[in-house]
Amino acid sequence: LEPAVAHAAYKASWERLMVGVQDVAWPLPEGHAYTKDALGDVLLYGVQGPADIKARLREELMRWHPDKFSARLGYHLDAAATPTITQRVKEVSQALTALMTGNAPGTQS
User: Fold this and answer.
1) How far is Cα 66 from Cα 87, in angstroms, rounded to an integer?
2) Using 50, 70 and 90 to split pLDDT, how confident is the model at 103?
3) Which residues contact 35 (CB under 8 A, 6 or more apart)?
4) Are 28 and 42 contacting, i.e. CB atoms less than 8 angstroms apart?
5) How many other C-beta atoms are found inside a 10 Å radius of the C-beta of residue 52?
6) Mind spelling out the 3-state secondary structure of the chain?
7) pLDDT in tens, 7-56
8) Which of 83, 102, 89 is nearest to 61 (CA)?
């Protein structure tokens, strides 16, 4: 292993990395609206009890919060896909927020 060569290859790989719409692990298939009900059905599948629901929603909110998503992947987003990705992330985040504010099954309003 030649460290200089490995380092250069490593840096080049990160610089080439571009994330498009199809590369994001969206919670719903293409063409489905990000409603709180649809998102809740998928992301809360198998979760039991209010404490588990809350924990799962917090985990997903951290993943899909627009600022956090942008901080993690923003530099690597394909410029042409950025507006679409940003809008979808916002839709996911808003549906998750609706679930978290007491509209999820097993939570109180």
Assistant:
1) 9
2) low
3) 95
4) yes
5) 13
6) CCHHHHHHHHHHHHHHCCECHHHCCCCCCCCCCCCHHHHHHHHCCCCCCHHHHHHHHHHHHHHHCHHHHHHHHHHHECCCCHHHHHHHHHHHHHHHHHHHHHHCCCCCC
7) 999 999 988 889 999 999 999 998 999 999 999 999 999 999 999 999 99
8) 89
Contacts of 62 (CB under 8 A, 6+ apart): 68
Amino acid at 23: D
**CA-to-CA distance for 74 and 86, rounded, in angstroms?**
9
